[in-house]
Amino acid sequence: MCTVTIVPLGPRPGFRLACNRDESRLRPAAGAPRRIAGGERAALAPRDPQGGGTWIAVNDAGVAMALLNRNHARSPGRAGASASVASAGRVATPGRSSRGGIIPAILRSATAVDAVRRARRLDLSPYAPFRLVLADGRAVADLTWDSPGLKVRRRSWRRRPLLFTSSGLGDARVGPPRRALFRRLLTGSNDLPGRQDRFHRHAWPDRPHLSVCMRRPDARTVSHSVIEVGPARARFLYYPDAPDSGVRPSTRRLGLRRRRGAA
Fold this sequence. Notes:
The chain is of the alpha+beta class and 263 residues long. The chain has helices at residues 79-85, 102-105, 112-121, 171-185, 192-201, and strands spanning 2-8, 15-24, 31-38, 41-47, 56-59, 64-69, 130-135, 139-146, 149-156, 162-165, 219-229, 233-239, 250-255.
């Protein structure tokens, strides 16, 4: 249950990926981003204390990764149950592996295309459905897993705003209103990072359960992450609460290394 957007960093080379993480109100708070290793690469990622994995990261090749759940429409009365199990860092059902382990398994990737190749080699059968967004400033890839197969959509980075969203209420239910808001707020080329921030803070007073900054009796937006990737370094801003709460972010920076094998 997340909302992820990608926008260009103004006239400068680079991009900005932002993510609202929506979770059960009973879920323990995640730790702030820290430096971790992905093979020979360094990376920044928060840690989910329940599953031990992560839902978002950036490595020192400038590859940003964000994981969203895929949720089909569900029957009424299942709000509490679905919200409590739909998580990148939690085993949703017996026999399932935590989806929080997917990003750490591909952190050593040199490019988004390389990350796609590594994801294709993973055994995804133990995982519940998910969507994995990969970006490196040259390409964006959108991978969706819903047995029996992994679907990959790759596209060149055309410096236009992109949106990916999901909800325990059912992705098809929240998608249309959030996409309409995204088109309205992100139309135009001036101050896209500022427009992106307004989008992630947005909440409809009469529809808090469908809002980008979401609140329900059983779940809410629990954190907000912003990854900025430029030519020489990446910056990770982490807000340990909803983006409209006024909480101040922690900030970590990561120097980028030359991308071996970059396309």
